[in-house]
Amino acid sequence: MNRRLFLSAGLIGLSSKADRRIEGGFVFEDQKTGHLLRDRKKTLPRPAREVRVPVVIVGGGIAGLSAAWELDRRGFRDFVLLEMNPRAGGNSRWGENTISRYPWAAHYLPVPDHGATLVRELCQELGLLKDGAWDERHLCFSPQERLFQYGQWYEGLEPTGAPGAHEQYRRFEEAMSGFRVSGEFTIPMERGGKPSELDRISMAEWLRRNRFDAPGLAWYVNYACRDDYGATAAETSAWAGIHYFASRAPDDKGPLTWPEGNGWILERLLAKLGRYVRTNALVYRIRKDGPRMRVTTPEAEYSAEVVIYAAPTFTAPYVMENAPRVDDFEYSPWLTANLVLDRWPSERGFEPAWDNVILRSPGLGYVVANHQSLATRSDAWVWTYYTSFAEGAPAQNRRWLIEHDWTYWRNAVLDDLARAHPDIRQCVRRVDIFRIGHAMIRPKVGFIWSQQRQAVAGGKGNLVFANSDLSGLSIFEEAQYRGVTAARRALRRISRG
After folding, report:
1. Do residues 380 and 341 touch, judged by C-beta distance below 8 A?
2. What is the pLDDT of residue 367?
3. In percent, how much of the chain has pLDDT > 70?
4. pLDDT at 157
5. How confident is the model at residue 371 (pLDDT cuts 50, 70, 90)?
6. pLDDT tens readout for residues 382-418
7. Do 233 and 273 belong to one domain?
8. Which of 88-102, 192-206, 238-252 has the lowest mean pLDDT?
9. Is pLDDT of 421 > 50?
10. Is the link from the previous residue into 255 a cis peptide, with omega within 30 of 0?
11. Are residues 50 and 189 located together in one domain of the fold?
């Protein structure tokens, strides 16, 4: 549906004379730097100096910063973190204008249960959790969610079903409750996960086998897979699909969110850990040098006892000698757009919410950045629109994403939003777009418990992998867990040496 509906955007979105001028452009065109490694079209300069340091962390997303957080809080401070971009943060980066801060990707943190100890420890450190109580200023304000269907907005994200659909929703929730109490579907996934036959079939096949065929329920499950995994239910492992619904308490009071999304957490991590971070540091070679590792950037070559590789795992063969096999690791491209509106567009039904989803849309909807504002009135708004390219081959979708210009994608975004807001073009004055070629790992059928994923995640020697893709689930908690786990392995390695 995504590709088929978006393909016509360049024609449907042709501006009429009545349309206002809309400014904007692309941001963070990271792929240009990354492609230097892939294509080897440019000779990268030899570094001018050598730095000797016990630990080097490669990658400044949440996994890399979590490794730094763990090292620092354990009193180990002789390390550096290398980030190829001008700003660290990965999918937690954020922006700001005169109206509001806003996210560029990750925009919330679900309230962690008591078993997610690492996330809770971080939340306590950040002042979000005190004496077992959550600071309500950081919990999502009401109303949280709404769905556009049948020409108007309705509260919640559950589609209105045909006769008999309610019984399927009830039966589906009972099945998820059973999986929830099994203890197998946990966050982090290593806490309770174990090899399962559910990983051998798709989520769509699991629905079919269990006679879940109500169109609304099928849409809702497919939306969940597209939203969290960038893949359709037909391509998502049933284990991962069930994990989405069974890993969290159904009555949690969250999520935790901010105008800048997870940028709120990022900003505080960087305030604490920024002294270790080296930006614009493209790592283009990692190799063994006797008992040590050498990490090469254009500015410096680092000699380390341990390297924590927190960059996406698929990049390893481009920079490492004797890199492990990673051909099973498959990533979905995404597009996000931040829109500045001078007024709220016309609509019908339930009132505006934080998360706004359009039934059977090619996109995933939008969140309202200044929904979390304490101001009693706003004359302007910032919406963050999301879509994952879930259908078809990821490589083909990446080419499609990069080959089309800003005007094409601006029109695609506005055409999609016009389904619920017909006058959207008269309200928007700016659209900035972030194209993410490898936004998140796809937990495709067979991947979660594949030997290849488990082998890379296991790690050995003085090279330790740490990205969230090692879990097959691209969520904050998994990135943090992998980073902290890698840091602990590094410390054990150093203490033995």
Report:
1. yes
2. 98
3. 91
4. 92
5. very high
6. 999 999 999 999 999 999 999 999 999 999 999 999 9
7. no
8. 238-252
9. yes
10. yes
11. no
What three-state secondary structure class fits 81?
Answer: strand
For 89: left if phi > 0, alpha if psi spans -120 to 50, otherwise beta; the answer is left
Token pair belonging to 72 = 């620092």
How many domains is the chain partitioned into structurally?
Answer: 3
CA distances from 156 to 35, 37, 153, 169, 350 (A): 41, 44, 9, 14, 10
**Boundary (domain end) residue, out of 218, 246, 274:** 246
Print the domain residue range for 83: 45-140+255-322+442-497
| C-alpha 220 chain-centroid distance | 19
Give the position of tokens 């604490």: 272
Q: For residue 306, is it within any domain?
A: yes
Instruction: Give whole-number Cα distances, 384 to 103, 195, 336, 339, 472, in Å.
Output: 7, 37, 7, 6, 25
Q: In angstroms, how far apart are the furthest CA atoms of the chain?
A: 71
**Are residues 364 and 295 located together in one domain of the fold?**
no
Same domain, 451 and 307: yes
Together in a domain, 126 and 261: yes
Q: Is 26 inside any structural domain?
A: yes
What letter represents residue 379's amino acid? D
Residue at 146 is within a domain:
no
Asked whether the beta carbons of 70 and 226 are under 8 A apart, the reply is: no
pLDDT band at 265 (very low <50, low <70, confident <90, very high): very high
